[in-house]
Prior knowledge:
Structural class: alpha+beta
Number of strands: 14
Distance between the termini: 19 Å
Order of helices and strands: EEEHHEHEHEEEEEHEEHEHHEHHH
Mean pLDDT: 85
Amino acid sequence: MLAVDVSNNRLRYASNTQYLEFSRPxxxxxxxxxxxxxxxxxxxLRSTEAKEALRIIETLRSAGFVAYMAGGCVRDAxxxxxxxxxxxxxxATPDAVRKVFGRSRTLAFxxxxxxxxxxxxxxxxxxxxxxAVQPTEVATFRSDGSxxxxxxxxxxxxxxxxxxxxxxxxxxxxxxxxxxxxEVIDFVxxxxxxxxxxxxxxxxxxxxxxxxxxxxxxxxxFATTLGFDIDASTLRAVIExxxxxxxxxxxxxxxxxxxxxxxxxxxxxxxHLIACGLH
Length: 279
C-alpha cells in the first residue's frame, strides 16, 4: 500500500510499514510582490536575448499565421528567471515555416513532430561562425496520438494553441506569451500553479506518465530545480508507477539525474527520488 501525506508542511511517504518523512525547505514560490507580471514579461520576453524569437513571431504574423513564445521561456520569465532559450509555437505547418523563412535558413531536425529550426538572418558581418549560431525552435501547434513505446507519440495532428497546451506535461510548461497583445495565454492553470509553487500534470497524471515515462523523473527534476511542491495526485502516480522507468533509456535517465544532482537543492531531489522509488 502506498500513501502520500502532505500535511503540516511535511512530506510523508508510506509503503506498507516503511516511512520516509522530511520537511519542506522554505522555498520562495511566488513572484516578487514588487515586480508585476508585465514588468517581468518586458524584462525577459522582450529582452535582447528574445529578439530573434520576436522577429520570427512577427514574420509569421505578417505571413498570416498565429505565433507565440511557448513553454519554458514563459515559465521562467514569470518566475523572474532569465530563460535559457526562447521557443516559438505557431499554427503554421513545418512546410509553411520553411516557405516563410526559406529552406536555406531552416533546419528540419524535428519535422515529423512539427518542429523546425529557424536560423537568424544573415548580415554583412556574417562569416563562417554563422553556421555555429543556434537555431530557434519553431513548433507547430499539435495534439499527439498514442504512445506505444512510452516515449514518443506514434502520430501527431496539427491543431490550435489550446490543444497544443493540453498535450504538454505540466501546467507550468503549458503557457504561451503573445508579444503583440503583451499577454500570457493560459489554458491549463499554469499561472496559478506558478504562483503557488506547485508542480501538477496537465490532466490525468497516469495518462501523462503512461505517454512518456521519463516525465516521472522530470517531475522530480522540476520540483528540485524550481523548489516546487509536487501535487499530491501527481506524486502518488509517480510512486505507484516508478517501476515503469525501466522502459526509459539509460541516456535519458542520466540526463535528468544530472540536472537533479546539479540543482542547488539536490538533497531534496535525492530524497524525492528515493521516496518515489526512482533510483
